[in-house]
Structure formats: structure tokens, C-alpha cells
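Hi Y.,

Following your request, here is the sequence exactly as I used it, all 114 residues.
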Amino acid sequence: MGFLYLAVLLATLGCMLLLDRRFRLFFWRDAVSASVVTAVGLAFFLLWDVAGIAGGIFFRGEAVIATGIVIAPELPIEEPVFLLFLVVCTMVVYTGAVRVLAHVRRGRAVEETS
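Below is the corresponding structure, written out as C-alpha cells. Let me know if you'd prefer a different format.
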């Protein structure tokens, strides 16, 4: 049961990437830009976590569903995977929302000209 959280994180990340592929929102729209944004976002949040750990703000909780593997003091292996999911999910939702709003605006523009 110790790998449940990590497995769920990886599964949900995979689902986000499938949505991305289906609608060509982020990685399948521009892989280079998406990779840069993802790397920068992941690095930012990891630095944020490290600063929080160093400041005594963030602590690793003990959970039955977590692996218990740490890559640094108070930084479990699941954290970078979660942060990767967070960045990818945010960008897929953002690019999807931009596309939907653009579609709505085009529809209104057509109605106004008719």
C-alpha cells in the first residue's frame, strides 16, 4: 500500500497528458515551449519547497499510502511528481480555457455581424 499515492499521482498525470494529446493543448501543441514552461515551473516549486523546509515551515508527514522514500530531508519522492502534475494540470486547464473562451468570442462575433 506504500506506493498508492505515487501510483495515483502518476495515473492522474497520465490522464492529463491524454487530455493534452486529444485536444493538442500543451505538449502536443508546442513541445519545446511546454517543456521549458514545465521545467521552470517544476524548478520554481521545488525551490519553494526547499525554502519552506529550510525555514522549518514544511514537514514530511507520515502516511500509510506514501512510499516513505525521501530524496532530501523532509522531501518525499512523491513531492516532485505532485509538483509536475500541478504544473501540467495548470497548463492544460489554462490552454483549454483559452481555447474555449476564444471559441465563445468567435461565436459572439458571428452573431453580432449577422
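Residues 78-113 form the longest helix (36 residues).

Thanks again,
Q.
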